[in-house]
Amino acid sequence: MRIVLGVGGGIAAYKVASLLRLFTEAGHYVTVIPTEAATRFVGTATWEALSGNPVSNSVFDDVHQVNHVRLGHEADLVVIAPATADLLAKAAAGLAGDLLTNTLLMARGPVLFAPAMHTEMWQHPATQANVETLRSRGAAVLEPATGRLTGTDSGPGRLPEPEAIFEAAMALVQGRSDYQLPLAGRIVTISAGGTREPLDPVRFLGNRSSGKQGVALAVAARNAGATVRLLAAHMDVAPPAGVEVVRVDTALQLRDAALDAAAGSDVVIMSAAVADFRPAEVSDTKIKKRDGAGDPMIALVRNPDILHELVERRNAAGRAGRQLIVGFAAETGDDDGDVLAHAEAKLQRKGCDLLVVNHVGTDRVFGQDTNSVVILARSGAEPQEAAGTKADVAAAIVARIGLELERVSPRP
Q1: What percentage of the chain carries pLDDT values higher than 90?
Q2: Each residue of 340-368: b (16+ CB within 10 Å) or e?
Q3: CA–CA gap between residue 212 and residue 237 (Å, rounded)
Q4: Considering the domain 187-277+298-408, what is its CATH architecture?
Q5: Between β-strands 300-302 and 277-279, what pairing exists: parallel, antiparallel or unpaired?
Q6: How many helices and strands, by DSSP H and E, does the chain display?
Q7: Chain-centroid distance, C-alpha 5
């Protein structure tokens, strides 16, 4: 596929190098057209090296090839990233002052804009009118992500992650109607990994969670267009790029972080393995094994039920139906019932909207690269099974979340 990648003059241009890499590694032929301002942020040498093609922003280069006409005609897809306020305005007005805007006028295939600018610029009535104009003409304009901008500012206007733009571009070319991405504009909080409850300065009570499934969920939510906050307990894997990371160690720290993050989230996914109990007392010094001394007795106290508390606070705030809460249950069968029986009972106790159920055991789920889950819904919908790599399972869970959100809290 022939792709024209137009690069606007914003600081987010540096992230577009990763988007270019995604296109080329997928086997597409990419011609990069930066604006003159864009070359002040990332030079043409970078675009040429990554694309393998010459780069120009002038209609007067290679005039014999009539590039200002040819590139738009030949393109199977045009992607503009970052689409600055200036570029959106020029595209909406039909201006043609350089090679990129000429190409936009000549393009007859799908066109995707990925905006990035300061919040006030994005929310300005002029920009919003330009976006509506472009959409009314059939162009796809993504919602910008919400997060850290230039300097200390934060808000809507952040360039979506390259993976999210890539997924939207591929969906657009394939004629699917989901190019806006199922979680575009949503804020998602995800907990991952296992908590550790200290016993003394060197020992703790923990669990076998590696954090792989939580990280896969963060990647899937990010790629679905969400702004993601990852509450990371102990993990054997690094957090993904493009998400905000909040580090926690204990269940009590996770509780505080989750309650704080949930207040501004559309979705909360509690995939972390949280210790049910913690030592009643934590020794200031290492507990030593001494000859002639008795074995230490360790008293445990119950940790708070974070998932249940999140549901109670949401309901008390009148956000039931507007915030989706997803729990995870790592279960084993016993004499009182099988895995699904225990999970159904937990779903009713917790009151969350969805419960993702793992059948755990030795060499199953924890630390593995594959997973098999059943998704239960409080609404009474049929259980949904998902299996494969943890990335596959995460994609299925995020897709289900997208459907649930459109059902209970559709975007205007």
Answers
A1: 59
A2: bebbbebbeebbbbbbbbbbbeeebbbee
A3: 6
A4: 3-Layer(aba) Sandwich (3.40)
A5: antiparallel
A6: 13, 19
A7: 23
Phi and psi based region of residue 83 (left: phi greater than 0; alpha: psi -120 to 50; beta: remaining) = beta
Residue that the structure tokens 């020992």 belong to:
203
Maximum separation of any 2 CA atoms in the chain, in Å: 94
Residue 138: DSSP 8-state? T
Name every residue whose Cβ is closer than 8 Å to that of residue 40 and which is 6 or more positions away in sequence: 9
Q: Closest Cα to residue 396, out of 225, 189, 216, 132? A: 216
| pLDDT value, residue 121 | 93
Same fold, 2-173 and 187-277+298-408: yes
Q: How far apart are CA 373 and CA 384, in angstroms?
A: 8
* Sequence spans of domains, the chain: 2-173, 187-277+298-408
Read off the tokens for 303: 């940790």
Strands 145-148, 154-158: parallel, antiparallel or unpaired by DSSP?
Answer: antiparallel
Active-site residue numbers?
207
| Alpha-helical regions (H) of 263-389 | 306-316, 339-350
Per-residue pLDDT tens over the stretch 295-311: 888 999 999 999 999 99
- Span 2-173: which CATH code? 3.40.50.1950
Interacting residues of 286 by C-beta distance below 8 A, sequence separation 6+: 200, 201, 202, 203
Dist. CA 249–CA 237, nearest whole Å: 15
* Beta carbons of 40 and 34 less than 8 angstroms apart: no
| Amino acid 38: pLDDT | 95
Residues of the chain with confidence (pLDDT) below 70: 60-68, 175-181, 332-337, 360-367, 409-412
